[in-house]
């Protein structure tokens, strides 16, 4: 039987409840999920790849299913190939996400035609969440526990002092 291995890439700086929603949905579709944390230096992440990987591992520890969390640099198509994944999972929050996501999936499939992207709709409760806003709220001393886990909220508090 073919094993369906999916890869869910992102910057995850930090992981939010929105990402968790997509992870839970993806686990219902694939046999194994690889959460791939892009180093993405151009985006100026506040947490290192290792810290982002650790936060994800902590948040997913009670989820059922086969999940691997890895960091990666370079092309997503290469990371997918190395991990035998041929399904890319991406969450869609709003119509505005679609154009960028559609382009990215086209480029990735052009680079590796074996690779297909599955878009999963964000749940109503998380469709407005974005890491950038969570960081801004935390930086300004606001409460982020509606948007991230307790562990991530603690890490943000520590970072912003
Ligand atoms: N719920 C809540 N928030 C979500 C979400 C969801 N379901 N889905 C995405 N987001 C948010 C993220 O928090 C992030 O917010 P931010 O921009 O405020 O930080 C934003 O939406 C998009 O981030 P993310 O999903 O992490 O994607 P990205 O655009 O940062 O990263 C990569 C995209 C990493 C997948 C892409 O750049 C990549 O593949 N890089 C590797 C290099 C490569 O192969 N490039 C060629 C691509 S064609």
Structure description:
This protein is of the alpha/beta class and 161 residues long. 42% of the residues lie in helices and 20% in strands. The chain is built from 6 helices and 5 strands, in the order βαβαβαβαβαα. It has helices spanning 17-27, 49-60, 76-82, 95-111, 131-139, 150-160; strands spanning 5-10, 32-38, 66-72, 87-92, 116-121. It has a 5-stranded parallel β-sheet, with helices on both faces. Strand 2 (32-38), helix 2 (49-60) and strand 3 (66-72) form a beta-alpha-beta unit. It is globular and about 50 Å long. The mean pLDDT is 96. It binds coenzyme A. The site of coenzyme A has 25 residues, from strand 1, helix 1, helix 4 and helix 5.
Task: Give the topology, please.
Layout: E1 5-10, H1 17-27, E2 32-38, H2 49-60, E3 66-72, H3 76-82, E4 87-92, H4 95-111, E5 116-121, H5 131-139, H6 150-160
Parallel strand pairs: 1-2, 1-4, 2-3, 4-5
The structure holds coenzyme A.
Coenzyme A binds next to strand 1, helix 1, helix 4 and helix 5.
Q: What is the percent of helical residues? A: 40-55%
Sequence stretches where pLDDT stays below 50 over 5 or more residues? none
Number of helices: 6
Fraction in beta strands: 15-25%
Computed over alpha carbons, the radius of gyration is: 15 Å
Question: How does the helix and strand content classify structurally?
Answer: alpha/beta
